[in-house]
Amino acid sequence: MLIHAILLIAMLFAIVGCCIVFTNAVEHLGKALNLNDGAVGSILAAVGTALPETIVPLVAIIGAYFAKTSVTTGQEIGIGAILGSPFLLSTLAMFVTGVAVLVFTRTGARKPLMNSDYHIVFRDLRFFIVGFAVAVGAGFIGSYPVKCFIGAGLLCYYLVYVFRTINRSLCDVEGGCELEELYFQKIFKKYGLFIILLQILVSVCALIYFSHIFVLQITYFSHVFSLNPLILSLFLAPVATELPEMFNSVIWTKSSKDTLALGNITGAMVFQSCIPASIGIFLTPWVFSFDSLLSIILVFASCAVLLVYLKIKKRVSPLILLVCGIFYLLYVLFVFLKA
Fold first, then answer.
1. CATH homologous superfamily for 2-338?
2. pLDDT for res 172
3. Residue 212 CB partners (closer than 8 Å, separation 6+)
4. Residue 77 or residue 133, greater confidence
5. Residue 197 φ then ψ, to 5°
6. How far is CA 46 from the centre of its chain?
7. Residue spans per domain, the chain
8. Closest CA to 50 of 208, 197, 219, 192
9. Contact 40, 260 (CB under 8 A)
10. In the predicted model, what is the mean pLDDT of residues 224-242?
11. HEC readout, the chain
């Protein structure tokens, strides 16, 4: 048990370290490709850190076929993982980002006012709500060919989002040209697109690996202490796979790079509503239980609160991010009361 406890803590620090290396590389990639902070956070960072939770449903669904285990169980786990990611991003990840802003403000590391480009956050949330609504709507359609058509449409929809996002230069927002030296540059004594991509590849692979080991340790302790498997499947494992997004956002908020911090979350939400959702539509029956429907409703509620606030105030506030955490708390209370 001591070894597993040490591994759990070690993997947590390893994930944080990988996120620091990843954010450093992705900022340099954005500069090399002449992208603005919105594009860097919403696309490059979001897709890279979304890989761990994207792999979970793939392994659950496809692995069940190859392992010849319960395909139905694998599909249920896959659907839960696909729906769980947007829920955690729109509630807990937003809450953690808001807390980070307040903590770093209290310590004097940054100013209290968030300088995030609210237009980018607003745009991402609108893209997400449309994509997620279409994906959820597919669950109420009985025809598999029609579902596949919707899944293909979601893939095209994400391409539209990518092209709409990449439309301004890097230095437009937050003075993004002031970058810390690339870490791999210190190792290889060279700088260029290949070295940047190599640092991204290594950090992403390490993120996936360490996140997997972290989830295994959580699973071990859930068995040792006889925790409810529902709690594990809905909260502990998904939270572990969402750690990269949350840690990246915390790192960027400390540097007052709020567009990157929030774009990392909202961009991942758009990605999750399109790519993993289309996988679920293609490879599973794509039907929802009451628990899933409740999480879906809370996702829309959290996004609606953010959109209304952005529409009225024309800015992002750490306090409104804290409000998103209430929806996560409501679902936690529901699960414990049900258990």
1. NCX, central ion-binding region (1.20.1420.30)
2. 47
3. 52
4. 133
5. -65, -35
6. 7
7. 2-338
8. 208
9. yes
10. 63
11. CHHHHHHHHHHHHHHHHHHHHHHHHHHHHHHHCCCCHHHHHHHHHHHHHCHHHHHHHHHHHHHHHHHCCCHHHHHHHHHHHHHHHHHHHHHHHHHHHHHHHHHHHHCCCCCCCCCCCHHHHHHHHHHHHHHHHHHHHHCCCCCHHHHHHHHHHHHHHHHHHHHHHCCCCHHHCCCCCCCCCCHHHHHHCCCCHHHHHHHHHHHHHHHHHHHHHHHHHHHHHHHHCCCCHHHHHHHHHHHHHCHHHHHHHHHHHHCCCHHHHHHHHHHHHHHHHHHHHHHHHHHCCCCCCHHHHHHHHHHHHHHHHHHHHHHHHCCCCHHHHHHHHHHHHHHHHHHHHHC
Rounded Cα distance between 324 and 189, Å, is 44
Q: Which two tokens stand for residue 104?
A: 């770093």
**Owner of token pair 């990518």:** 162
Structure-token match 């899933």, residue found: 292
State the amino acid at position 28 in one-letter form. H
Q: Which two tokens stand for residue 160?
A: 């539209």
Question: In which band, very low, low, confident or very high, does the pLDDT at 176 lie, cut at 50, 70 and 90?
Answer: very low
69 has a pLDDT exceeding 70: no
Write out the two tokens for 316.
């992002």
What gap in Å lies between CA 52 and CA 54, rounded to an integer? 5
Q: Which residues contact 161 (CB under 8 A, 6 or more apart)?
A: 127, 131, 270, 274
